Amino acid sequence: MSLLARNRVRDSGINIFHPAIGLGGPGAYEQALKFFASWNGFIANADQHFMRVDSAADLDRVKASGKIGILLGLQNSDQFRNPDDVDFFRGLGQRVSQLTYNSRNLIGNGSTERRDEGISDFGIAIIERMNKVGMAVDVSHCGDRTTLDAFEISKKPVLITHSNCRALVPGHPRLKTDEAIKKVGAGGGVMGITGVRMFVKGDEPTTIENVLDHFDHVANLIGPEHLGVGSDIDLHGYDAMPPELNKRLRASYKGSYGFREKIDIESLNHPQRMFDLTEGLIRRKYSDKDIEGILGGNFKRVLAQIWTV
Questions:
Q1: What is residue 63's predicted lDDT score, i.e. its pLDDT?
Q2: CA 276 to chain centre
Q3: Interatomic CA distance for residues 67 and 1, integer angstroms
Q4: Which of 94, 109, 188, 301 could form a disulfide with 113 if both were Cys (CB 3.0 to 4.6 A apart)?
């Protein structure tokens, strides 16, 4: 990593990154091995700048260390061929696993599957093992029934690390119903709000104020102590990608995702976007305590519960 890139990371004000991606299909196990090997090698070779976050204590240590924390996870659980694989990947550093990506796997259904079905018997066994070893269950891309099933099955809080409210963008399959959001509150979990444009508002103009509306909606339903930030973009956003990569990204999703000309939202499409978001939360009259929770404190509290074995 270049000096310029490191400075951009440090100047962002973000102390911990969760660089999860969606892997799936017949080669998911091998792809996941490569993913964790690559990240572990990167962290080991740059340990003066980065540290892997493995425990609740690490969440406390990382800021004091002056390093950037890397919290490893995946946006799918296709890599789990059996419950023992949960233990194996936890040993490689995985601390969060989304049950499904957008399509169906052996555990349950993704958000853009043709039919809305729930979690399988195999999925129950995977969730039980995740609870046992201290790996967080994430349902951000799961279908509605699979999302609700996860809250019923898991004995530990379930996370929605990056999604928004369907009540504000009616009909979008990737967003969460009020019923699911209430389950987050009842189960002691956290929901991270994303600034991906088509998840924020169904038409133009779409601004940071519309993103803040999603924070308000969740806060009104279950309280700000269950809110977090799940930006779902890298430091520079999607619209800064090379055109060919942007084209390939869009082509990899179903039409129901509703891509428009832009994916990012102005004010939230740059490395220091957390400062603009914080200013917005202040405008919306959130207290200092609430904002500290939203900017990481709430996820920290719940992850400590989930990771405790």
A1: 87
A2: 20
A3: 14
A4: 109
At residue 164, the pLDDT reads 98
Residue holding tokens 């059996």?
Answer: 82
Give CA separation, 96 vs 36, 137, 155, 240, 271, in Å: 13, 6, 15, 27, 24
Bridge partners (DSSP) of residue 229 are 193
Average pLDDT over residues 14-41: 95
> Which positions ≥6 away from 177 have C-beta within 8 Å?
144, 166, 167
Q: 178-201: buried (b, 16+ CB within 10 Å) or exposed (e) per residue?
A: eebbbbbbebebbbbbbbbbbbbb
Phi/psi region, residue 244 (left: phi>0; alpha: psi -120 to 50; beta: rest), is alpha
In 10 A of CB 70, how many CB atoms?
Answer: 20
Per the CB < 8 A criterion, the answer to whether 129 and 107 are in contact is: no
Q: What is the pTM of this model?
A: 0.96
Going by pLDDT thresholds of 50, 70 and 90, the confidence category of residue 32 is: very high
Q: How confident is the model at residue 11 (pLDDT cuts 50, 70, 90)?
A: confident
CATH architecture of the region 75-307:
Alpha-Beta Barrel (3.20)
Instruction: Give the 3-state secondary structure of residue 148.
Output: helix
Residue 10 predicted with pLDDT over 90:
no
DSSP character string of 126-139: HHHHHHHHT-EEE-
Round the CA-based radius of gyration of the chain to a whole number and report it.
Answer: 18
Contact 268, 215 (CB under 8 A): no
Q: Which of 241, 295, 242, 294 is nearest to 264 (CA)?
A: 241
Tokens of 245: 């990569």
Domain boundaries, the chain: 75-307
Q: Tokens 């990154």 belong to which residue?
A: 17
Tally of CB atoms within 10 A around 4: 8
Task: Please check the confidence at residue 7 and state whether its pLDDT lies above 90.
Answer: no
Structure tokens at 15: 């102390």
Alpha carbon distance 245, 250 (integer Å): 9
